[in-house]
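Recall the central idea of this unit: under ordinary conditions, the amino acid sequence of a chain determines the structure it adopts. In this exercise we apply that idea directly, starting from the sequence alone.
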Amino acid sequence: MNCKVRFAPSPTGFMHIGNARIAIINYLFCKQNKGKYLFRIDDTDVARSKKEYEDAIIQDLKWLGISWDETFRQSERLERYKDVMNKLIAKGILYECFETQEELDYKRKIAINKGIAPVYDRSALKLSDVEKERLRSQGIKSYWRFKLPNKTVSWNDLILGEISYALNSVSDPVIVKADGTFLYTFSSVIDDIDSGITHIIRGQDHVTNTAVQIAMFDEISDSKYQVQFAHLSLLVNKDGSQFSKRLGSMNLSDIRNQGVDPMAISDLLATLGSSLDTMPFTNMNDLVEYFDITKFSTNSPKFDMNEILNVNKKIMHQKNYEEIKEYGISEKAFEIIKDNISTYNDFNIWKCILDTDYKATYKPNEEQTNVIKTAIDELQNSEIDENVMNRIKEKSDASGKALYIPLRMALTDMEHGPNLLKLLELFGKEIVLKRFTEALKR
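Accordingly, the structure predicted from this sequence is:
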């Protein structure tokens, strides 16, 4: 298959989990079809686009393991957009408008009150050159709309199936604002044509845009432009609300700071909303082979951070020592604590706990104090061997949680964790006695 996809974020906020889903699915589809991946920065919104957001998006993509074959910024192509604009004006496809936002809002309100679709009435087409000049002399800045043909456009969506859209039910889209800014609907079509994009994979919120852009493709391209579309159902929060860059919803950087492996994100987002089970793959190649874009449903899946953490825990349990030794944990300690690791941050916690100078904060109650005193007496007169816990159990008359929790808490400040006997052996008699004794002094 001839395949070229694009991920085209606008640097107007940090990348959230919904954006990441689009980036990942485009990447997997591209790799599966041995295609090319274009990373395009849609920065025509000068007022809201910021370098810090662009840098953060690039960092997030690289962290996810997403690479690209080509990249450019829309701000570098303004002359190209102007050239296409002038050609379409000459053809009568673009027309100049002068309504203020207040006037447009009023027209929309009137239409809704009458129970009709609030489609732009094309009143600007009735303006004479003299009337236009008069409006300009009054300081009113014009904007431009694309005149949609009166027809129905259809396409076979890779996810939604056959879709037909009557263009007379849609307002002629604004393609250049009064301040001269080109809007996404227009500039994106030009970029897709010039870049040779073959597949556009994005959210279902773009379905109307797609209908409009198909009409633009036909007018702007020299020949009938062939592109396939796939519209993914929108990812939502657990409460059903949508993700938003402006609101800082579930930023990738926040998830990364929780010590999550990037593959946990890719594993979940590549399958969430599909009939595929989420598998804890540890590399992209395996996920590429498993991925299937035809398995996605039209229902909006709910994202739960706990699902990421569950996948992440399974990935952590597949790690070998070479992959985590940078965290300063000994190989012996790694083998003991491995099954209790959920995130990379846990290694930092354990590194601190395993330090000989670690100061626990646990303060035992009276019953727990008795267990710890018994453990101290036993260890002062014997070694840590396979029967040491049985001896402490018999002498303290404690068992189960009553036995294990105070000893574990005195060592690690944790109620749950690795096998306690293995921990005692790992710390060694001197450190164990020191921590048990310190616990009694609190």
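The first helix runs from residue 17 to 32.
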